[in-house]
Amino acid sequence: MHSFASRVPPLNTQPLALESVQRQSPAARSLARSIVPLMMGYVTRYVLGTDKLRPGALEVRGARPHLTTGVIHVDDPAAMSQWLKSISDNIVGLTNLQMKLLNRNLPAGERIEYMGWVHEGVVQAAQPWQTYRPKFLILKGTDVMLFDVPPASGASGPSAAGPRYFSVETRQDLLRIEAAWTAAIVNSVIRLGKKTFTVVHGGRAAGLTLDWATGFSLSEGTPGAPPVWAYRFSQLRGSSDDGKSKLKLHFQDAETRVIETKELECQILQSLLFCMHAFLTAKVASVDPAFLASIQHSN
């Protein structure tokens, strides 16, 4: 059985590593010590590779697979909660400090919004998400990057492609990722500025443009021609699609307040919908005082 070698540190301190001891057999009467750096590590209550919760136990894992305290049993629920919070708070604090140091040398559009561990669900035959593997997630600029172990610099790496399923240890972890994801979307949309999709409108080829500054507009004919119609993002009241290529956008006229429906067809409908969601999310977040304050604080 494992036990901690020291008392729970005060919550206003930031230890750089966690030490545990493993009691050997009674005859040996010795202790095997292991020290796990908290930088880029994580604490978990789950059995590695599964979604099975260990009752009354936790494990601290480091940045490399061999760094672990092993399973630590804590009988007192209050003590367990205090350990989890203390360890998690220190890991988050160290990670945020590392992000700030890295972001000093990065331009605004390439800043790191999130670094931390997630658990990726692995599809196996007809039983998805039965096994999980730890992945180190980085949201940087317009990229989503995944690593088996944290990179040395955190500045570059392969971008994740295709749909993925991730889980995290706590709701607080999920909220941190959601906030960072929203910040990354806002920065990406502002950097992109606008995006035009080829669509069919009224039986004619056209271009639907999403513009950060002006909203939706549809143009036909030569580039630069006046739009057939244009609406601000705030005028969109709803949308519907057939999941294949057809899309309906419902706008409210600024003067008459009447709902006007525009029907389009797009061969890359899912890409258009994802882009719409990103622009709308960014627009809403950009006028949220609390969100703006958090962005300014992180900068």
Report what the structure shows:
- It is a single chain.
- By secondary structure, this protein is an alpha+beta fold.
- Among the domains are: 93 residues, PH-domain like; 93 residues, Pleckstrin-homology domain (PH domain)/Phosphotyrosine-binding domain (PTB) (PH-domain like, Roll), CATH 2.30.29.
- It is built from 4 helices and 17 strands.
- It has a 4-stranded antiparallel sheet.
- Helix 2 packs across helix 3.
- The longest helix has 27 residues.
- The protein starts with a strand and ends with a helix.
- Keywords: Cytoplasm.
- This is Gamma-2-syntrophin.
- GO terms for molecular function: structural molecule activity.
- Its main location: cytoplasm.
- It is found in: Cytoplasm.
Q: Main traits of this protein?
A:
single chain, 299 residues, alpha+beta, PH-domain like, four-stranded antiparallel beta sheet, 4 helices, 35% strand, structural molecule activity, cytoplasm, Gamma-2-syntrophin
